[in-house]
Amino acid sequence: MRKTSSTAPASAREANVDVRFDVGDAENLPYANASFDVVISFIGAMFAPRPDVVVAEFARVLKPGGKLHMANWTAASMPGQMFKCVAGFVPPPPGLASPVLWGDEDTVRQRLSSDFTDIKLSRRLYLHWHYPFDAAELVKLFRTQFGPVKKAFEQIDLQQQQGLRSSLEKIYADNSETRNGVLTIMTGELLEVEAMRR
């Protein structure tokens, strides 16, 4: 949300797509009121700490009748299980909502109901991830490269680190299959959200 992927501009150039990339905050979008016909968040705004502020910003920058599209991890997805596991070792600050609540139909309807109508929700499996190693190596990768997991390991002692490593390895193994030395994560379930600005 605060950082644009360094690969996005390069991908746009390769695809010959004319697009502008802005770095911003999902809770304070740098745009005027009623600026857009469509707002899209793909596994992004779900990580902002204050969902009510995010919804208000979506509504603010959308024109009346504009469309909101989101895709958010569900609790059943491998990432959802991973976030729950990490929170068991390093609890979030009091009052902070779990990101995967954006993958719960009832929660999404409640959050959007004041500013949006025609709310349509559907679950689907996202693409599979392929890694040329086993679940234990995937823990090592996430421990050094994936922010929430990296931060969790940095905040706990060695004994807790062993517990977290074992728990994550089990999650990765339980949600994947391995063939010819390639681990493939199979459970990337998303909740797709479509709604119209009132």
Structure description:
With 198 residues, the chain is an alpha+beta fold. The chain has a domain at 7-127 and 186-197: Vaccinia Virus protein VP39 (Rossmann fold), CATH 3.40.50.150. It is 38% helix and 25% strand. The chain has seven helices and seven strands, in the order H-E-H-E-H-H-E-E-H-H-H-E-E-E. The strands form two sheets. The protein has a four-stranded mixed sheet. A three-stranded antiparallel sheet has the order 4-6-5. Helix 3 packs antiparallel against helix 7 (158-174). The radius of gyration is 18 Å and the shape is globular.
* Biggest sheet strand line-up: 1-2-7-3
Please trace the helix and strand order, writing H or E for each element.
Answer: HEHEHHEEHHHEEE
The CATH class designation of the domain at 7-127 and 186-197 is Alpha Beta
* Low-pLDDT sequence parts: 1-5
N- to C-terminal distance: 25 Å
- Class computed from helices, strands and strand pairing: alpha+beta
CATH topology of the domain at 7-127 and 186-197: Rossmann fold
Q: Name the helicity range.
A: 25-40%
Number of helices: 7
